[in-house]
Design goal:
The chain is an alpha/beta fold and 389 residues long. The chain folds into three domains: 108 residues, Fumarate Reductase Iron-sulfur Protein, Chain B, domain 2; 144 residues, Rossmann fold (3-Layer(aba) Sandwich), CATH 3.40.50.1860; 118 residues, 3-Layer(aba) Sandwich (Rossmann fold). It is 47% helix and 8% strand. The chain has 19 helices and eight strands. A four-stranded parallel β-sheet has the order 2-1-3-4. Helix 15 links the parallel strand 5 and strand 6. Helix 3 packs across helix 6, helix 14 packs across helix 15 and helix 17 packs across helix 18. The longest helix has 18 residues. The radius of gyration is 20 Å and the shape is globular. It starts with a helix and ends with a helix. The protein binds iron/sulfur cluster (2 copies). The site of one iron/sulfur cluster has 16 residues, from helix 2, helix 3, helix 5 and helix 6.
Length: 389
């Protein structure tokens, strides 16, 4: 008995028996459009939330042993949380927790995840980021923009791995806007490490805890009262997962879209240029469904002169995932792009000229799909704001 209680799945054990296998989580309530990206791609019960809960129950009770196919079904969940919105029973808010606990369980059993997902932990240990980029170059852009050396400020900007190495234009637009608005900020310099989100999503919890200890201490040391993020993953991890792991973040965690909406309301962020375009907004799963942040990005877009915002059929809490999250893109790149393709097609049906999002990782996957399949390009909210001021 005591052995069972030590399993990561024991934390969600009471929910493992609650799924009625009614299938409501497979479609968006009211419009009956697909809800689960992995179920829709692989068309097997094991790739839908209900199948994964069934597998979790089997692993917990010792009746199921992990196989290669089973590991694939568990690790192709993008952790988009759409199922948590569509499920009608009281287990709904625990579905992603069950899937993440199941991944942690597989890590403990020494069978999951497989490469290249498994390599993410190695890369983060070596270079403090999942892209295996040199840690010494993490702050290169901020050094060039002359914002690296500022010692103390009320806001510390947590750039995040994707904005620091891959989508540098997002970090650049963010710091240029802050400078334009006269907002003082600092950085953690070399003490900024990956937030740990990719590790938490794939079940590598022990390393994520070590990283959380380091980042939380660095934030406290900075003396800031707010920690600003560009990325939906960093935002959710610092604000929700760190406290859940018992790590206190001494500063208020704020996403850049909330800060910009605040600056607009205070009349500190003013637009002087029109952008004549129709755009549609893609809600990042880890910003929207996981954190409830839907309004600020829309308020910003509506404040930009000339810009018209139109909504996709599946938006806000019903938004279709970009396909990249949950550690999926690193291993099942083709699947991630197919999910993004469907999102782009949905965006095209609105008549928009391009897609806007507020997560550099969503932007990357949607534009990778654009390069492969065509359709619409995606930009980040901060890039549009910079163009309009
Ligand atoms: S997870 Fe919820 S909606 Fe999905 S089959 Fe189970 S009870 Fe039904
Ligand atoms: S989190 Fe998303 S991908 Fe995972 S089971 Fe739920 S709906 Fe499917």
């Amino acid at each position: 008995m005591s052995e069972v209680m030590e399993m990561p799945l024991s934390e969600v054990a009471e929910w493992l028996h609650r799924c009625a296998r009614c299938g409501n989580c497979k479609t968006v309530y009211g419009i009956f459009k697909p809800s689960c990206p992995s179920g829709e791609e692989f068309k097997l019960e094991a790739f839908y939330p209900s199948g994964r809960i069934w597998i979790a129950r089997g692993i917990y009770t010792g009746k199921v042993r992990p196989s290669r196919q089973l590991i694939k079904s568990i690790y192709t969940c993008t952790t988009c949380a759409s199922c948590t919105v569509q499920c009608v029973l009281d287990l709904h808010e625990h579905i992603v927790d069950i899937i993440e606990a199941l991944r942690e369980e597989l890590v403990r059993m020494g069978v999951g995840p497989t490469d290249p997902q498994a390599r993410l932990a190695k890369y983060i240990k070596m270079e403090r980021n999942p892209y295996l980029e040199p840690h010494s170059k993490r702050m290169e852009l901020l050094r060039r923009l002359n914002v690296y050396e500022k010692r103390k400020a009320d806001i510390v900007y947590f750039v995040g791995c994707t904005a620091a190495y891959i989508r540098k234009e997002v970090a650049e637009a963010t710091v240029r806007i802050l400078k334009e608005c006269g907002v003082e900020f600092s950085t953690l310099k070399e003490d900024e490490w990956c937030c740990g989100s990719p590790l938490l999503r794939i079940g590598q919890v022990d390393l994520a805890k070590e990283i959380a200890d380091h980042n939380a201490a660095a934030i406290e040391e900075s003396g800031a009262i707010r920690v600003l993020t560009s990325c939906a993953g960093c935002y959710k991890t610092l604000k929700k997962d760190y406290p859940k792991m018992g790590r206190t973040v001494s500063a208020e965690v704020i996403h850049v879209t909330d800060l910009l909406a605040e600056l607009i309301a205070e009349d500190r962020l003013k637009f002087s240029r029109e952008i004549k375009a129709t755009v549609t907004y893609h809600d990042p799963c880890h910003l929207g469904r996981h954190m409830g942040l839907y309004e600020s990005p829309r308020q910003i877009l509506e404040a930009i002169p000339g810009l018209k915002l139109v909504e996709m059929e599946r938006n806000m809490e019903n938004a279709w995932c970009c396909g990249a999250g949950g550690g999926v893109k690193s291993t099942w790149g083709g699947f991630a792009l197919n999910v993004a393709k469907r999102r782009i097609e949905e965006a095209e049906r609105t008549g928009a000229n391009f897609i806007v999002t507020s997560c550099p990782f969503c932007k990357t996957n949607l534009n990778d799909a654009y390069e492969k399949f065509g359709g619409l390009r995606t930009v980040d909210v901060v890039e549009l704001v910079l163009k309009a001021i």
